[in-house]
Amino acid sequence: MALPRRSPVSLALRPRSTAPKTSRRAFSASRTRCGYDDTVQNLRIGKHTRVIYQGFTGRVATGNAKDSLAYGTNIVGGVTPGKEGEHLGLPLLPNLRKAKEQLKPDATAVFVAAPQCGKAIEEAIEAEIGLIVSVAEHIPLHDMMRVFSILRTQSKSRLVGANAPGIISPIGSCRIGFQPLPTFAPGHIGIVAKSGTLSYETVASITRSGLGQSLCIGMGGDIIAGTNMVDALRVFESDPETAGIVLVGEVGGRAEEDAADWIVDYRKRVGEKAKPIAALRGGGQERTAKEKYAVLEAAGATMVQHPEDFGGVMKTLLSQSGRDVGKIVGNAQKQQQKRGYHTMRRRPVSTLRRQPSRIAADAIKQQHRSLLLGPDQAPAPLEPYLSQAGVSLSDTEAPKDAFHLGVTVDRTARSPCLAVSPSTHPSQLSQRLRHFPYDWREGPTDATIKSAIAHMQLDAAPPAARAQTTALLRALANMYTDKEAVTLSAAVSIDTTSGDLVLHQTTLHLQFDDAAFRSCNRQEDIHSLRRKNLEDPAELEAENHGIVFLTLPSPAASSSTAAQEPNIGTLVNGAGLAMNTLDALALQHSGTATNFLDTGGKATAATVKKSFELILQDPRVRVIFVNIFGGLTDGGMIAEGILLAFREVDMRGLPVVVRIRGTNEGVGQRIIAESGLGLEAFDGFAEAAGRVVELANR
Questions:
Q1: How far apart are CA 530 and CA 514, in angstroms?
Q2: N or C: which end of the chain has fewer CB within 10 A?
Q3: Distances (CA, A) of 278 to 14, 70, 206, 302
Q4: Taking a C-beta distance cutoff of 8 angstroms, is the pair 338, 290 a contact?
Q5: What average pLDDT does the segment 44-53 reach?
Q6: Tell me: domain 370-524, CATH 3.30.470.20, correct?
Q7: pLDDT bracket for residue 574 (50, 70, 90)
Q8: Which of 655, 637, 659 shows the shortest CA–CA distance to 646?
Q9: C-alpha separations of 99 from 69, 372, 513, 544 in Å
Q10: Class level of CATH domain 533-697
Q11: Distance separating alpha carbons of residues 249 and 294, to the nearest angstrom
């Protein structure tokens, strides 16, 4: 099944005119006077914000709404298709149109499963709801590129997500999402984060410092983010309640680099009045973690090594900037007392310094992996498109003067783009590669293709080669949407005898979005290639249960330096926290993990049990470390899953160390304490990690 963007692919190439088409109409009923960038102020939520739910009567939405109501969120009702009446004592309406008319919402929380989520977001845009927060995981990439293509045509609706923890204003008693409420405290620090779990650790540090939070935006870690770091920075700059700003990066994309560019401009515009900014680096494919660190630091952000450092660092920065820290803390405490707020009970934790770990970075990339076809598998799906473009496929090595071309995602533009370079040499490619974004619904225009070819420096190429390059770029753009790809690229050269364009098979890089099949049963032919290609059966078994699992290798026997055999099994929720856990074990406590395991945000007791089974398949494991800092992940459920594993799985007599923080942490901690299983439970991460390594080395 294909994405319902248009009719199934015709193998005839589809030239696209630069003239406007009906599908490019403004999606909102109101005339667009501004643009999507002008909707950032919709992020300033608070007591005034009228919130509805899409998928209101679902189990997760119901529980979330109860907690948000108790927190003070002004929820005015919700929508479930085909149902009308009351739910939780609030109006329940059968469609968004009626909800818009009767409830007059400012924001909607989209608690709809991935297969229907894109459509639900589009309905909210058409209803001109000011803020749309989407929390679902595994929404297909091309569904979100279509959504953002629509968002660009209007100036009424702002999207947070998808696959985002959401947005919360502790100072305004408003939560739209699933952040763990006990972690937050009203105050004056604005936070934007890609990683949910790392953001919760950050929030906890800010809360312990007494500074509290004004607004926290979880942008999510997906390739396409409706709201990015720059959008959040623009809001924090103008928000009178925000005295300082925190950025939490994560693996992948250019969000941190774009934020650095904004910070440079901001500091030039504002000078000494600039609000202090602290940041935690993230890794990435475009630049290494070290480079991300350097670019943010050079821009003027103060870098921290671990999220537990943010509270102390921000206090210092506020003081150095001439702001009255005592007054800021005092105002935050007044806000907390006004609403009867009590911070989480926790024992003091020691500062933990974090350095980049190659093995953790590799693991985090794996958790985002899609289907990547090798050069031997790529020709089958590619051949029909090459045939229509009139381009031949060669098994010869690409010459030194080859060109790079392809189609990928431009994360800044939040759209597909042509990616081209006049050189394929590794030392030049990253500097000379240029993106030419285009609208997902329309494909690249003639002008876009012409600009891309000019950048490839093909002006002097034979006419046949230039025409074939144009046809190939169009064909790849068609394949990109038809097959729901993430990246399609290759090296091409010009045959010196015939003057024709040649595509070199050994350079093919065809990467597809697995979520299209897993969530929506689309692209079955592509997905079947992954099943044949998957090397580790445990990874496929984990995937079938919604778990991201990767076995980490033992050190090479020929290594000249002594290296410890991995012996710690890890069970963590959230990719960012999982990477951080591996780093901390290795670099701060000299412990080595046997695996990377992310239970996923919607883990159940059965998922936790399966996670133990996967970890215990590895005979190297001598201790298991359960490290949970949950939002959507429920602490009580995690604890029940641990007990289930002890009842039904051969635990091999291994010790288990548990740290559960976040949503329902008290329930989870009580279940562990009363289990009678001899489990060791900790509040602080450093204490727990130290004990894990101690047990592993006994």
A1: 9
A2: C
A3: 48, 32, 12, 5
A4: no
A5: 97
A6: yes
A7: confident
A8: 655
A9: 18, 43, 34, 37
A10: alpha beta
A11: 13
Average pLDDT over residues 500-528: 92
First vs last C-alpha separation in the chain: 54
Q: What is the pLDDT of residue 541?
A: 87
Interatomic CA distance for residues 241 and 516, integer angstroms: 41
- Residue located via tokens 């006077």: 33
CATH T-level fold of 180-336: Rossmann fold (3.40.50)
**Boundaries of every domain in the chain:** 35-162, 180-336, 370-524, 533-697
502: Cβ–Cβ under 8 A, 6 or more apart, which residues?
391, 392, 394, 396, 492, 493, 494, 495
Q: Is 273 exposed, middle or buried (0-12, 13-18, 19+ CB in 10 A)?
A: exposed
Residue with the bigger pLDDT between 167 and 335: it is 167
In the chain, how long is the greatest CA-to-CA distance?
Answer: 81
Cross-strand partners of 595: 551
* Residue 111 neighbours by CB under 8 Å, 6+ apart: 53, 54, 55, 56, 58, 60, 61, 64, 135, 136
User: 497 vs 175, which has greater pLDDT?
Assistant: 175
Give the pLDDT of residue 506. Answer: 94
The packing angle between helices 605-616 and 635-648, to 10°, is: 50
The angle at the Cα of 256, spanning 251 to 262, to the nearest 5 degrees, equals 170
The Cα 202–Cα 183 span in angstroms is 10
What would the DSSP string read from start to end of 228-253?
Answer: -HHHHHHHHHH-TT--EEEEE--SSS
Q: What is the pLDDT of residue 253?
A: 75
Which fold would CATH assign to domain 35-162?
Rossmann fold (3.40.50)
DSSP letters spanning 360-399: HHHHHHHHT--EEE-TTTTHHHHHHHHHHHT-EEE-SPPP
Written as six digits, the tokens of 678 are: 């001899």
Place of tokens 């103008």: 238
Q: Which of 105, 109, 172, 102 is nearest to 135 (CA)?
A: 109
Residues 493, 495, 500, 504: is their CA dihedral positive or negative? Answer: negative
Whether 533-697 and 370-524 are alike in CATH topology: the answer is no
| Residue with the larger pLDDT of the pair 293 and 101 | 101
